Amino acid sequence: MLFGQEHVQRYVETDGAQGHDWQGTTVLILTTTGRRSGTPRSTPLIYQRYGDLLLVVASNGGRDDPPQWYLNLLADPAVHVQVKGDRFAARARTAGPEEKPAMWRTMTAVWPAYDDYQRKTAREIPVVVLERV
After folding, report:
1. Using an 8 Å Cβ cutoff, are 22 and 108 in contact?
2. For the whole prediction, is pTM greater than 0.85?
3. Which residue(s) pair with 29 in the sheet?
4. What is the CA radius of gyration of the chain?
5. Which of 117, 111, 128 is nearest to 72 (CA)?
6. Beta bridge partners of 26
7. Which Pfam family is one of those matched by this entry (predicted)?
8. Per-residue pLDDT tens digits for 21-43
9. Looking only at Cα atoms, what is the longest distance across the chain?
10. CA distance 3 to 53
11. How does DSSP classify residue 21?
């Protein structure tokens, strides 16, 4: 089973032939800029299309602290995305209160564990919207 940096490496090397389809869902590679280091940081994340947008969830498995990639994009919302062989610049933002419920349902339809993760933490787990620029 791929995940973490091995997942990123195989995904990038094979244009997603290895790693895009994962445990019954789909994965993209999100690259943020480290808020302290300035170094690019690539993370494999479950995603779904939502019209022209892409959605990912900053769940961190239901931990009380958000994932580092989310903190990085809050500091710098200019990100890079790879979906299969399609690599592009995008702008990341946290879904607002009006749009989040429908987006959350879209994500839990493909990864129901997000609801379990939300129950494990008092932190409101964000849905992140990625828009191609």
Report:
1. no
2. yes
3. 44, 82
4. 14
5. 128
6. 21
7. F420H2_quin_red
8. 999 999 999 999 999 999 999 99
9. 38
10. 24
11. E
Using an 8 Å Cβ cutoff, are 75 and 115 in contact? no
Look at the block and give the residue holding tokens 């769940």. Answer: 59
User: Which residues pair with residue 32 across a beta bridge?
Assistant: 41
Q: In DSSP terms, which residues pair with 128 in a beta bridge? A: 56, 94
Instruction: Spell out the domain ranges in the chain.
Output: 4-132
CA angle 94, 27, 38 (to 5 degrees): 55
Q: How many residues does the chain have?
A: 133
Gap between the Cα atoms of 80 and 100, Å rounded: 22
pLDDT tens column, 85-105 = 999 999 999 999 999 999 999
Q: Which residues contact 101 (CB under 8 A, 6 or more apart)?
A: none
